[in-house]
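Marked as duplicate of an earlier ticket. Keeping the data here for the record.
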Amino acid sequence: MWARGIRAGSHVAWQLPTSLEALVLAGALSRIGAVQNPILPIYREREVGFVLRQSQARLLCVPGTFRGFDFGAMAESLAAQQPGLDVLRVDGGLPSGDASSLPPLVEPAESEIADELRWLFYTSGTTADPKGARHSDGTLLAAARGMCQRLELDADDRIGLVFPVTHVGGVLWLMNGLLSGAAHIAVAAFDPTTSIDVLARHGVTQATAGTVFHQAYLAAQRERGGRLFPQVRSFPGGGAPKPPQLHYDVKQELGGVGIVSGYGLTECPVLAMNSVRDADEKLAHTEGRACPAETEIRVVKLDDSAAAPGQEGEVRVRAPQLCQGYLDESLNAEAFDADGFFRTGDLGFLDPEGFIVITGRLKDVIIRKGENISAKEVEDLLYPHPKVADVAVIGLPDPASGERACAVVVAAQGAEPLSFDEMTRFLRQRGLMVQKLPEQLELRAELPRNPTGKVRKHELRRLYSGAEETP
């Protein structure tokens, strides 16, 4: 890096799989003092080009061909369009250098750790350009320390690093290992048919990293029998909502304390997290309490007044792990309220003990004949059906009601397809009011998800907007 002219403050983008090379690269760039911009592997030329231009990157590090896509060719094409951009292909290991050629390492001041820009993370927008959140080492370390404390990580832990390391959560897991002394079991691209064996062989104790992974572990446990991960302590989660039943199933069948989930965003990672010592009810139904202690969570009703405990509203946060705003400063006015709280766009409530429950997104509320329907509420009620392996509820345009609720279901292995009448009967038996019952049922082999496990509902809406309603 030094030989390529990268110095303190140089902007370096890297789009690598979760690998040893990526972890070493992150450490090397940190040693130099560069500004790092990890880029999600799902980004292609349009999005990567936008990120590189906006961040004025000096270097782009990519693999050659990975998972059937030629990242090297894309990088060379982008470099030809952006003067001053160099490309490093990391497909045969990283280049070596003489550490003695670097200037002496000076311990940074606390103010530098807290304030200096060191990281750029771009949110994966679906209809607009990605937004670059500005982070310091201090903002990320605040989140990592909170995770280490809630999970009680130590040097005996073996972390299943199956999460994309280019996501803010991936970098936090790297920091968690460095802070606690825990080892990482790095998996370049998660594949249930091979990756689970790798985790088992290396004695995973922290089986990360979210709902889609936990569902894969549970399916493998049920298929294979025995004890899949004999040394597992917990199943850390985040990045996507979890059905409460999943916690109980994981704890009973896989072991450990079950799912220990957290809640955060690219702009403010891990602003809340459960503890390995929390009761099952909290682990199943909440995303934990604010962490670290300085984190302030505020729930605001749609009229901008404060919500009482148990009352739903928009979640807003002010915290030491909160980003320093966006690289495009014009976005900041809308993102923060007058008191400096970040508007998450998520709906939820705080229970009387301070645990946060996420009920959906402001944009994920289905409005049918003026009635608000929480997609997550219906999903959580339908998920325990024995014929259901996965479910997403979406709103589709309807000329009569404005929107109609559509349940998109993945059938449980070996089960007959769920029928529309079975679905409605099950939901009514579980107390769902008639006005909230899905009016359409679609069956799929799997749900489209992004690398962090979130269902790409915009793809489902686009797919089924023209589908006929189920009678």
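See parent ticket for discussion. The two ends are 62 Å apart (CA to CA).
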